[in-house]
Sequence to fold (219 residues):
Amino acid sequence: MKARLLAMLLEQDSFFTDFGLKRDFEQAFGEPNSQEYSTTLAALKANDTIIAFDVEADGLDGVILDHPDHGQIDLKECSPITVDTFFAIGPSFAVEMHQDLYSVSEAAADGGLSEALRLIKLLPIDSSKWTGEHRALRFTPQVQSKLLLILERARAEVAQLQLSNAEAARVAAYVESAQLLAELPDPEPDLIRLLVQRILLIVGVVGFAGDLKGLLWTN
Fold:
């Protein structure tokens, strides 16, 4: 169940609702056992694999609601009476994915989730695919130390960027995920590169993002 949920989450662009995820799960894998589904989802929330956002308290802007009857509608165009919480991939998602890579791949294949499986097959990431340069990162203690310093600075700088709340939440989650991976005894440089690439796609090569790109693509 956990592997199949993780495979589903790979296809989520940003925010999703509990009922929307369950509906998509049912379409891909069949109706889940309600108790097992609820328990698994709660466990993923508890360890920050996914994080919850309260619509009113967190002031989410630009969130698209995946409504079961009316399709995709802008949250600003509706009154959230029964849906007051959205979820997004959290800082522990990358670690969870790495630990369960084989089972997630199997779940994605069994469910016909072609895009999720495509993303999984890209791991580990070879940076030469988008830089044209041979991958030559040596993840030395010096590189690790500098990376952690940049990521710590990034946590403070994200709030200063001109981003929507949704984009800021995604960048913050990617930064936290990269920190978790960088602090592991045996870091995975390619997974860290993937997270940095996603940060660059959102914020561009400015400030801390430029420092990250310079560190991970030149060392």
In short: The mean pLDDT is 75. Residues 165-182 form the longest helix (18 residues).
